[in-house]
Amino acid sequence: MFTTLLKSPIPFFSSFNSTQNPSKTQKGNHSFNKNSKFSVSKTHRNGPIKMPTPPWMKGPLLLQPDEVLNASKPTTKRSSNNNSKAPEKALFGKESGVRGKKVMKKIIRDVEKLQGNGALDDTQIGKFEEFEIGNWLEEIGSDGEVKKFDRKMPWVREEEKVVFRRMKKEKVLTQAEIILDNDLLERLRKKATRMRKWVKVMKAGVTQDVVDEIRLAWGNNELVMLKFGVPLCRNMDRASEIVEMKTGGLVVWCKKDILVVYRGQNHWLTSNGQRVFNNLASDNNTTMSPEKSNASTWGRSLNGEDRDENNQPVVGSLYERETDRLLDGLGPRFIDWWMRKPLPVDADLLPEVVPGFKPPTRLSPPKTRPKLTDEELTNLRKLAHPLPFHFVLGRNRNLQGLANSILKLWEKSLIAKIAIKWGVQNTDNEQMANELKDLTGGVLLLRNKFLIIFYRGKDFLPQGVANSVMEREMALRRCQLIEEGARVKVAETFQVANESLAKTSTVGTLAEFQDIQTKYGVLEKENNELEIQIEAQKENLERELRNQERKLAILNGKIEKSAKKLAKLNSSWQTAEPDLDLETITEEERECLRKIGLKLSSCLVLGRRGVFNGVIEGVHQHWKHREVVKVITMQRAFLRVIYTAKMLVAESGGILVSVEKLKEGHAIIIYRGKNYRRPSKLMTDHLLTKREALQRSIELQRIGSLKFFAYQRRQAILDLKLKLAKIRSEF
């Protein structure tokens, strides 16, 4: 191996030391490791020559003089095998980078290749020990002794890491792939890709009108294309299920928000959707391949699906089964549900009025407030986010049936989640939430145009617990009556014979307590509650009045500050006086100039800055090449447009031709005149600059908004004062 190493094109130095003793192998080896230049004896041509050795070789490398490569004649012969890597390049070649795990791995790999080569045994003189990197990593201690570095190298792995790859989702065969033959299915899909007309499915979903339109289209074509809007376009698997269930067809092709439905060969036999589906299945089973027939009959058993105690296949995941168990008995399901299963309860099919319905009994636990804190409210909202929807609602009023179902649900779950139907006209989620809150007494967690979330509350009592509490109260009252009867009997036994029974005292008896409660308890309670409500209302109005007055004072301060800035900007510019000796033009010239100006493609656009010195410069630049300039302004008020036109005429010295209403705004057409002379200074000094004009526009907008909000605050203060005066006068 080292024979090839010495023949590599590495430049050896031609200066040889004649005093070199080849017998001193160990000393010569260390001297070579210290010096990059080495020497080879030239006088002893017949004797061996000591050559440089790598650091892991224990003894010297002695070669004959004819085996040493002459560096003055580099070889240019290339190996026929370009993929083979020379071992000397592995030893002396450069590596990308000077440190790091990757570089160390490359070095160790190259050393192992050199170690396994058989040419190493021929060139090695002496004992050869197995090379280990760990033996050369030594460190010198404080006492001068050499200590071995026994730590493991960073690239040495103790054990292989266990990597769990993500399981690929198995493709579920559709109903069309199970029933139809491959040739027929391929033909239908090719035909579906060429279709360009479709039936639009709106927000309301696959309604009866859509089903009728599909069946009408099936009379002329065996395929019908459906294009879905929100929300069904977000879940096309669910859309396919709904279409197949309602129409009785088979979905043969799906792409993005488009489905293509196949009617079947026996479609004309009946118009009933359920019978069409049965005929379609029975008709296409005759053309079904044996593989698909087996897959449709006992494919589930081969897949190893779960079975219940009655050896029936379990349908759906554990999540769906648990939610279905929770919603069982609450009402009919909403089959047009646009999200994933399980299907929620359709609240519109529940009864509007439930006989004997009343809000539930509520009782807070001891030392517990029924009101939720902000932290509890946040936690409940986070808890409700991943939960499935329990109900779907589309009407605003008469929700006793829904409230009754919610109370049943609250016995098993803390939260009731209600989705609002898409495509239903005049839905008001605020009215829905208020009526449900009055009927159930729950806590509203979240409400928007898509969903309503209710929490049952800390003081909610399930029906069984409420009945137990009522029974306990009835038993307590019976005990009080029994005690009162016993007390009366004892009093009759010890009463004086001459004293009448009517004069018997009722002090400390149950009858006295009940009389006091009847006479004064309810009245005092009502009066106290009314006074508390009035005082609370007064305090709220006064606090709101102080808040509005404080905001009005802040707005007035801002208005004054903005007015000062605006006055300072207005004082820095002034308009030019109009020229009394104006040049006149005839009506024919005016009409001709107007048409020329309207046809101009180049124009000058006025923005929010209005007229400033840069605009006048632009007008003169337009007049340099043409006689008419067209200025377009975005102002809406026509009086402001006329004011801008007069200002442009006064500043530029031109003649106003016309003001025209265009699609993008108003066009002001100005003629430069027959006696026009280009001024030496285009930008005037008495107008605002571009920056000052922008500041003026911003201040105008700010002061207008502030005045509008100040007006609203004054109206609110006036209304609050009227309400407060009315309450004080009445009570």
TrEMBL record:
May I have one GO cellular component term?
A: ribonucleoprotein complex
Q: Which GO terms describe its molecular function?
A: mRNA binding
Coiled-coil region(s) at which residues? 513-565
Where is this gene product found?
Plastid, Chloroplast
Give the residue ranges for region: Disordered.
13-55, 284-312
Would you say which domain of life the source belongs to? Eukaryota
What the entry lists under Pfam families is as follows: CRS1_YhbY
Q: What is this protein called?
A: CRM domain-containing protein
